[in-house]
């Protein structure tokens, strides 16, 4: 799981990728040069300010993340199978269309956007055509088997591509009117992509690549139609109005490596090493000024527990055996103050402190030995159930902004949870009154402290 950090900490919340297609002001130096040919014109544009670069940043990051997680896709699915093995909800079949429905609902209600309904439809149909050609060309060439084994057309995810095409359509038409439309559209697209994973219909790289295809397809669709009309929209006056208060409010997707600073099951005698896992989640904050705001996060972290090797000397030559404990998983949420400082228009530093609760998944404990006569040579001996516990978190981050709407953030968080774990042993132990009394009332108080190092895809609004 440690390789997951190389995915650039990114899974899909591009909610607030602001429209950058503003009406350009005239360049004074260029105007003067029209009068005097002796004055040279400097037309050099910084690389990250080039329009095609700004439009390709998010898709490029998503395609990179898809490639980086390809080798870990089965391990990531095992996390889903462990914690949500029976999840089945078909909301993703319908939610993928919600942003496009919102566009036409707003236009029919008289809310003015970038284009009138005819040109918007032409741009949308062009985007869908590009997306459909790209997705289906890859699907039936790559022939990747779906995680549920149903078909060989898993990569890339068509649902995710459709959802992000529609979200980008809403962003293009109404993002400059109010960034809330972009936030809503990309949130719906992200939930759609997540649903494809939870329903075991797609691997993580499938939805990452699908999201990138959806975004770039819409960009290309609008590019071609804008060229045909020779301008960037029917309602050009809207393009000069950029909403926002210049405060660093944001929404972000994060992913990173989690490093234990304590032995999580020390009191339970089930591990003797600090654990290494991964963390993923959502984070956001609303700033009341350029320095101070209030934010919250929701994150999931998982830590595989390394098996313990033991030797049983009972006179019967039982020999070596292993104690295997299923991984520990924590679903945490917290809220608290955020502080931000901008070194420049490109670099931003932030601090935070949050408090909340963490719910911990239950798990099982096994004994494994060649002497155990089962197909897996394993014997379940107990299950554990942690209680929900208080969690506090402190963190720092450094963001590089590709443009005012989106940036890549390196973050470091410290988390502390005091967890109470109760162990319930197997029926065979319950049949022995002495062992049942001794073992089935075991409660351990564990300190769960860990540091997370990772990356966020941060969208500002």
Structural description of this entry:
- There is one protein chain.
- The chain has 2 domains: 2-25 and 46-239, no CATH class; 254-460, Porin, CATH 2.40.160.20.
- 34% of the residues lie in helices and 31% in strands.
- It has 12 helices and 12 strands.
- It has an 8-stranded antiparallel barrel with strand order 1-2-3-6-7-10-11-12.
- β10 and β11 form a beta hairpin.
- The longest helix has 26 residues, at 117-142.
- The protein is globular.
| SSE topology string | HHHHHHHHHHEEEEEEEEEEEHHE
Label the structural class: alpha+beta
If helices are DSSP runs of H or I spanning 4 or more residues, what is the number of helices?
12
Residue-averaged pLDDT, rounded? 81
Please state roughly what percent of the residues sit in beta strands, choosing from under 5%, 5-15%, 15-25%, 25-35%, 35-45% or over 45%: 25-35%
Query: What proportion of the residues is helical, as a percent range?
Result: 25-40%
What attributes characterize this protein structure?
globular; Porin; single chain; 12 strands; 461 residues; alpha+beta; eight-stranded antiparallel β-barrel; 34% helix
Structure summary:
Residues 122-222 form the Phosphatidic acid phosphatase type 2/haloperoxidase domain. It contains 12 helices and 12 strands. By secondary structure, it is of the alpha+beta class.
